[in-house]
Amino acid sequence: MPDTLTAPIKTSTGRALRTEEMVINMGPQHPSTHGVLRLELVVDGEIVVDVIPHIGYLHRCFEKHAEHMTNYQQVIPYCDRMDYVAAMNMELGYALAVEKLLGIKVPDRVEYIRVIMAELQRIASHLIAAGTYGLDIGAFTPFLYMFRDRERILDLFETTCGARLLYNYIWVGGVSHDLPPGFIDKAKAFCKYFRPKIKEYNDLLTFNEIFVKRTANVGVLPADVAIAYGCSGPMLRGSGVNWDLRRDDPYSIYDRFQWQPQIGKGEMGTVGDCWDRYIVRIREMEQSINIIEQALEQIPEGDVMSAIPKRIRPNAGEVYVRTESARGELGYYIISDGSTSPYRVKARSPSFVNLSVLPEICRGSMIADVVAITGSTDIVLGEVDR
Amino acid sequence: MEQFLRNIIDNNFFIYGVMAVVPLLWIVPYALFAVWLERKVSAHMQDRLGPMRVGGWHGWAQTIADILKLIQKEDIVPTAADRKLHFLSPWIVFIGSYAAFAAIPFSSAFIGSNINIGLFYVIAVSSLVVVGILMAGWSSNNKWSLFGAMRSAAQIVSYEIPTALALLAVVMIAGTLNLQEINQQQNGWFWQWYLFRKFPFIFVAFVIYFVASLAETNRTPFDIPEAESELVAGYHTEYSGMKFALFFLAEYANMFAVSAIGSTLFLGGWNSPFGDFLGGPFWGVFWFLSKGMLFVFVQMWLRWTLPRLRVDQLMYVSWKVLTPWAFACILGVGFWMMF
Fold first, then answer.
1. Which domain holds residue B181?
2. Smallest CA–CA separation between B152 and chain A, in Å?
3. DSSP code of A285?
4. Is B38 in CB contact (< 8 Å) with chain A?
């Protein structure tokens, strides 16, 4: 903090004027805390001296619920409700963890369906992230453009499993429904439709002079700080660290596709600023389309139900499986005591970890920047609090 | 009795009263229309339809329904609020933007008050708005409102300077502050408008005026005082019901006021763009309102396209970009007039 800000202000008679910092409460009901996050801001005028995040307003005891289910499948709807804008990714991580515990191999068709769904969900989630980010910066229209396109993805999900937000689609050992007739053509049509839309977002928002001014060089998260805090996902890649679990620790069948993880390069300002985190998401959508297109070409025929176990009763033991959700490294740590329900389920949620870095990068910025930085971390409070 | 009525009609106060109400006859329907238009413009820009139900055709009665709803709403005053100031501030804001209409020439035959210092009066009286906003922010006893009010005060005071300087460039050529006279000087075809005179100085001044006027009316990209995503609703966070409606009305009235000044000084006001085609006092109203509404539309267009600046960037734009360029325009016009 520069001295000029903390030096006492003198009146005309030379008497020192007493000034003090103001504590201001941002949230839990605030338009841009993306849910029920409460930020306690200590401000000196418009300058933010400190930020203290208070979480827990959306705590729904996911882990305790998981222990009290009568079987492993029943946990899946609760996984949906953690990160409710990327529910497919949440289900996928849990299903993979239980399958690893059971030692099942799922049919190829199931693997492909899961990858297609997870990547579609990643696009849908990034659309929300980018759209609401525009909203945080004050641009309303890109938000609705992105929701228009997200709607098409939700329509695809709806034709597949009947639900648009919380699917209960990816089950242990399979998926709840096979792809409906015509899905592949519709998904291909969507890919063709979506590619030019990314350019539209870029024209409208990404390279808008005001948007760049607001986000470049704001909330710079250096790579070493990001690693030290355990950040992951677009937050980590925005800081220039090339780390994507889909490539570096491939799960499911991600090693079969050609694509490139995207990292922030500091094109508009410093590496690791808000603009970098934003552009990583935009470019990841393009890469997800690449993966989906390849998967749609390669998908084999098969029975999606064949590997679903009649009764899930893993041997006593424990497992940790990590997947790349839309927000970063999603880990499930499951302990089995040999009964039909998990003894313990711990979810390592990426939003929670990414949120912890917020005070570090907010100090010394302005109130408007706190909004920009919070938006660029793309937290979902359902997943932070679980 | 007859004598009594005659006295009232002859009395100047009666005339003043009528003259004072006439702008209101324009502002209220205009505000209702503009709010509806804003919704429709934003909706169509955002691939939606906007209000479609109330009143039948494209939801034309939506804002009327909204006003009726606002009138019926409970007027909530925070317990810790300064009740007097809290009550007074929406009126001051409204008066500030409404009083400006007194000197705006709607047509060659109608102007509320044809005073010699019309332009000066409009600039002066519209800065009354900032007092009301400060009062609203302070009296609400809400930190977010206070932030909004402080930002607003800084912003409006800063942007009045480039606004006034840009207008001065025109005044230098016109040699008068009387808005009616400025209009008469632009009589004829559209190349007679001040916008195209002393090219490009006045043109640049016009752009400066327009940008600064967006900030004066708290419109995007300068809507920092009420920045929804940062300050919840800025200075009017704690207002509800009719008081909120007054702030709303004032905002739209202000939008038209700055547009009207812009069209009067730069686009020939009530003059027809095509010489004598559709000229005269009656068509003058039409031309004046269309020019004003054109600006209002552009303001809406910008609002639904651009993101918002940050406070420091806002000050930068005012003091380091607009103000020096406005001075350059004045200098340019001055040299042009001397040589």
1. 81-338
2. 13
3. H
4. no
